[in-house]
């Protein structure tokens, strides 16, 4: 008959703890090794991508884009000066959305919110349009606090008429 003593039980428990620790160590080591392999694969993939990008940039640099100059052979100095005079005499070119804003300002006071809803643009874009038209002299601010309200100026009216 085997007599189990306290020291034997402690030895068996210590042996089991050692075996579990060893198994845990082996598991952690395997995970570590797999992580290293994964990192190496990622590094290889990155290097391949970097090489492909480098090759692409080299190819782009090899091919020169030729910009063609406009054909000016038929233009004389007289034609150029006539075209320049005509362009100075015509009304200033203004974007379609700015024209819509001016037309709205002709009917009543407008705000950035009105422009935003009418043109289906962001409030920031509407505010920018109004500020540009104001600094160009096409609109007049009717108040000095936000939200700014605008009406059309004489310069804006003459632009619409001309």
Strand order of the largest sheet: 1-2
The CATH architecture of the largest domain would be Orthogonal Bundle
CATH superfamily of the largest domain: Winged helix-like DNA-binding domain superfamily/Winged helix DNA-binding domain
CATH topology of the largest domain: Arc Repressor Mutant, subunit A
Task: Classify the secondary structure makeup into a structural class.
Answer: mainly alpha
Explain this structure.
With 162 residues, the protein is mostly helical. The protein has six helices and two strands, in the order αααααββα. The protein folds into two domains: 1-62; 94-161, Winged helix-like DNA-binding domain superfamily/Winged helix DNA-binding domain (Arc Repressor Mutant, subunit A, Orthogonal Bundle), CATH 1.10.10.10. The model is unreliable at 64-75 (pLDDT under 50).
């Amino acid at each position: 008959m085997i007599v189990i003593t306290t020291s034997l039980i402690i030895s068996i428990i210590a042996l089991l703890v050692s075996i579990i620790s060893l198994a845990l160590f082996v598991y952690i080591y395997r995970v570590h090794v797999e992580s290293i392999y994964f990192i190496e694969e990622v590094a290889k993939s990155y290097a391949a991508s970097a090489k492909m990008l480098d090759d692409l940039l080299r190819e782009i640099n090899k091919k020169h884009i030729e910009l063609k100059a406009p054909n000016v052979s038929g233009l004389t100095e007289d034609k150029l000066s006539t075209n320049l005079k005509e362009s100075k005499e015509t009304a200033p070119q203004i974007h379609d959305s700015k024209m819509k804003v001016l037309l709205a300002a002709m009917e009543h006071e407008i705000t950035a919110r009105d422009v935003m809803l009418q043109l289906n643009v962001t409030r920031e874009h509407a505010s920018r349009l109004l500020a540009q038209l104001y600094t160009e002299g096409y609109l007049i601010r009717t108040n000095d606090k936000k939200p700014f309200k605008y009406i059309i100026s004489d310069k804006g009216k003459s632009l619409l008429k001309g």
